[in-house]
Design goal:
It contains 12 helices and 8 strands. The protein is α/β, with parallel strands linked by helices and 328 residues long. It folds into 2 domains: 5-145 and 312-326, Rossmann fold; 149-305, Rossmann fold (3-Layer(aba) Sandwich). The strands form 2 sheets. The chain has a 4-stranded parallel beta sheet with strand order 2-1-3-4, sandwiched between helices. A 4-stranded parallel beta sheet has the order 6-5-7-8, with helices on both faces.
Amino acid sequence: MNFDHILLLGYGAPEKAEDVMPYLRSMSDGRGILEDRLNALAKHYELIGGASPYNAQVGDFKERFWKELHAVGINVPVFTGMKNWHPFLKEVLLEIHQKGLRKGLVIPLTPYRSASSGARYKESLECLCSASGMNDLYYQFIEGWYDQELFIQAEAEEVSRVLQTVASEERSETPILFSFHSLPLHRDPANPISHYSEEARAASALVAERLGHSKWTVVYQSRPVSACEDWPSRPGEGAGIVGIPAKTAWVSPEIGEEVKALAARGEKKVLVVPLGFLCDHAEILYDLDHAARGVIEKAGMEYLRAKTVLHHPKITTLFRTLIEKSNP
């Protein structure tokens, strides 16, 4: 093996209620966000239990992933570094360096290369290594696995579980909304972010094809300005987005737009699939299960939602196979 450790790279989220405001201040540092705006965002966490399950779900995945690696003889440590909360990436990199480890594999906790670039994971890691005098740390990124068979299988199985709760004669007619975190439009074809919509549609088409389901749409959520006038989120209230200028153009259609279109067509049910997310956090539990659900039910439709897949055993196997393929 030409690596001595593995680094799972994520966003991070507050694990208890008293961490919510410090977390929001950390995310918005230097962006000039008013305190009352952060207080409004903090109320979203109150509605989902006071904090986020993100870190706990990632921690559980890391343990299962480590066990799977050891079962096949890949005996290297696995670390988790977060961009916006504990364990902060800077602290984890210092720990790695102090242990004498120098060559690592990084797997961002998003299937989409564009989303990884949007989160500036590579830039953050490189800047932290340089600023901390750890330029001898070398990392190989494994990213852009949105079209891998095991990922598609896991997603399709979770969607299928929900469809099985729908009367058999209604399943094929139940509209599916494959939901992704919105990003600002980037028109430079050389920038990976510009391909975000292509990746989102490709993954959605693969899941729909595996399900044999033709009634589906790609939508985007959590952008600062909703196109749906009665959408509960005010500008900037997407739980994971703060400090983005409202005038910025974002990928579309926004989920609220599509919900209104479905209601106008007389649909009775909507199945939302958070295909852009690996595990639960505020963008799922508030932006979908609270905000989107409220709009869907207000329009007289039933809200259904598939689970995220980080808990699925096929995802640990997927990560192992990605490592094996990158280091034959």
